Amino acid sequence: MTQVLRFPRPITPLLLLVVWASTAAAQETDDRHLWLASSPAVEAGPVASMGGPNLVLDDGGAEDGIGLNDGGSLLWFNRFTPPAGDFPMRLLSVDVLFPLTGNFPVGSVFDVFVWSDADGNPANGATLVGSRTGNTVSVLDAFQTVSLSTPFTISTGGDVLIGLRTTGPAGHFPAAQDQTATQGRSWAGFGAGADVTPPTLPTATFGTIDSFGLPGNWLIRGTYTTEGVATESGPNGVSELRVAPNPVATQGTAVVRVATAQAVRVSLYDALGREVRVLLDRTLSSGQEAHIGFRTDDLPAGVYVVRATGSDVSLVERVAVVR
Ligand SMILES: [Ca+2]
Ligand SMILES: [Ca+2]
Hints:
Blueprint: E1 2-7, H1 13-22, E2 32-38, E3 64-68, E4 72-80, E5 89-97, E6 109-117, E7 127-136, E8 143-154, E9 159-168, E10 175-178, E11 186-190, E12 205-208, E13 217-218, E14 220-225, E15 229-234, E16 237-244, E17 251-257, E18 262-269, E19 275-284, E20 289-295, E21 302-309, E22 314-321
Antiparallel strand pairs: 1-2, 2-3, 3-10, 4-9, 4-11, 5-8, 5-14, 6-7, 6-9, 10-13, 11-12, 15-16, 16-17, 17-20, 18-19, 18-21, 21-22
The structure holds calcium ion (2 copies).
One calcium ion binds near residues 117, 122, 124 and 125.
């Protein structure tokens, strides 16, 4: 059985609330719809295991799949608010579940976008952090992980928005929804702006799914770490040092950025404090990001320190060299 949920267009979330509160009757003049395809309920599993995703809204069980009945680009994302002390952070991976009933089979293509948003309101825009497009569905009704080979660094506190975008013909319901207990943090957008890369927020039709009369949570999760990022705030912005991967086996990359122009020396020190590599020794301009690759395959395994020093920066990151 399939329920069809309809609403007029153009539309505002407030109007939707009124429509859904006042009538259950479909409006036959609608030209754009979200469809809610019923599917057998899946019992909730554990929300997050140790070391697993730490950005989670759902209970692990999808009750439905949602899509656009006319086809087109659908953007759906969760709004997470990590503790303020966890910024800056590095987003390591995105986990997503696709529904059995989505008519969106293994091999289908989806894009991932991540925004940061300091003001808590996606409806007035957000800042793109990164994207990974062209992913393919590998499994249905179980979480699959999209690893970010270069983690997305998020320095600005506030919200982290993690979203998916699919484009397809009518009849796809790719957005798995947990209906058990809405947290009011799952959003959807479509229409103008959803088709471009990256999608511009807000899209033509945009709001929480609760405001569309579809209360629930998307099964989109994220895993971040606060390791591997050092920053200093100053009058001219933020200086930053990142090292990836960490642990590192054969080759690492240090990224350093300074808020004000200055001579910067970036070195690798061993556990005894000996400088074993000079990675960079030159003047950087304000806001310039220097990416420095360095070999570690000739170093003994152990804990090392990458240190960036200049006239007004002193940044330190620990890095483990493993074999
Ligand atoms: Ca559920
Ligand atoms: Ca905003």
